[in-house]
Amino acid sequence: MKTDENVVKVGIADMSYCKAPKKIRTSGLGSCVGVVLYDLSKQIAGLAHVMLPDSNLAKGKTMHKAKFADTAIVTLIRLLESKGVSQKQLKAKIAGGAQMFTFHTKNDHMRIGPRNVEAVKKALQRYAIPLVSEDVGGTSGRTIEFNPETGILLVRTVNKGMKEI
Amino acid sequence: MVNKETLNQTALDVLKEVGNIGAGNAATALSKLVKKRLQMKVPSVQVVTFNEMMEMVGGPDESVAAIFLQIEGDLKGNMFFVLPIEQASLFVRQLTGSVKFSFQEPPYSDIALSAFQEMGNIVAGSYLSALSDLLQIQVVPTVPDVGIDMFGAIISYGLLEISKESDYAIVIDTEIIESYSNHQSESPIKGHFFLMPDTDSYRYILTKLGVATK
Q: What residue intervals traverse the membrane (chain A) (predicted)?
């Protein structure tokens, strides 16, 4: 995956959208989960890079809605609706939620990957968005790129190369 | 809440000195371990957005070998020692005396991983014990864990706790390089120590060292 003007990049705890022929990408997902919501008929897709499962974890007033699974999904739906997409047409693909480190500590951050995945799935269910495919868990970081024209999500890991889901 | 205006010049200077003393000690330990002359650059102390953090070692996609440990006790936070994969492989070959170890492709041998982990233990331990002496506080590191993967995927663990209350992180970054490497074509040893104190802890450090915080 090379640098390309036709790729919209999404940073950590952030979200954005794109229309074909552009693609949308986020890099270096570890315990974070990349959530793609898309409408193939309109060839439009939104992507959120979720860090934490629940906005109840927030201690201060943090601004990035995309940071938490619960607030990210609803905000991403609204963003796509504002671009003329109906919530009913949306489908989802997700990737990430790895467990990069294994040691045990007092806090539960080491299990944050699986918890992020659970929270994202729960939020998708709440808004009745079908989850078409997923590449989650494991112990590897991922970079993902979605093509709203084909609906293909490209997943790259350091050692296992590319795959399409 | 931490933001770009959080640190004044005095606070920056003090945190730089913390990095200086910690990384200086660590570089000495590493230098003895791998029998190379190492030099460290002046630490940089920055208040960064998470995305700026992800860009610090060649971007979130960059493959790195990293030691990660959490710090508990009076000072809480995360510490990373990040090396290019080729460099980590070289260190491990030196430490084990085996020419065949490499972190280029899995499966990694258990011996190579534990040698790398032990190196991290010694190096990070030196950093933190210098810190503990300087600040006269208890610093309790967890057993270090090894990650060989994308920089973004690894460093994001250091942002989890901070992200609950802020969109910015304070990072004390110290780069080490090989001191006599002047061949432009060859890449010299290059490693980064990242110390990322939790929000309350950086205030604690500054108070301990007599700097008022906002």
A: none
Instruction: Report the range of poorest mean pLDDT among B31-35, B75-79, B86-90.
Output: B31-35
Q: Is the pLDDT higher at B112 or at A60?
A: B112
Fold of B9-208: Chemotaxis protein chec (3.40.1550)
Q: Does residue A155 come out as left (phi exceeding 0), alpha (psi in the -120 to 50 range) or beta? A: beta
Is A2 within a domain?
A: no
Query: B116-132: per-residue pLDDT in tens?
Result: 998 888 888 888 998 88
- Domain for residue A1, yes or no? no
| Tokens 């693909």 belong to residue | A93
Contact B153 A142 (CB under 8 A): yes
The pLDDT-based confidence of B185 (bands split at 50, 70, 90) is very low
Per CB-CB distance under 8 Å, the chain B contacts of A67 are 163, 167
Question: From CA B182, how far away is CA A85, in angstroms rounded?
Answer: 57
Partner-chain contact A63 B156, CB within 8 Å: no
Q: B152 and A28 in contact by Cβ < 8 A? A: yes
Identify the DSSP state of A55.
G
Which of B51, B103, B149 would you mutate first to test chain A, the one with the most A CBs within 10 A? B149
Query: What is the number of CB-based contacts under 8 A between chain A and chain B?
Result: 112
- Strands (E) in B2-41, as ranges, are 38-40
Say whether A18 is catalytic: no
What is the interface pTM, i.e. ipTM, of the complex? 0.89
Whether B17 has its CB under 8 Å from any CB of chain A: the answer is no
Q: Which residue has the tokens 């940089």?
A: B44
Residue A124 included in any domain? yes
Quick one: three-class SS letters along B96-161? HCCCCCCCCCCCCCHHHHHHHHHHHHHHHHHHHHHHHHHHCCCEEECCCEEEEEEHHHHHHHHHHH
Chain A: nearest CA to B195, how far in angstroms? 18
CB-based contacts of B199-203 (< 8 A; 24+ apart in sequence) = B199/B1, B199/B2, B199/B162, B199/B165, B199/B166, B200/B76, B201/B75, B201/B76, B201/B77, B202/B15, B202/B170
**Chain A neighbors of B78, CB-CB under 8 A:** none
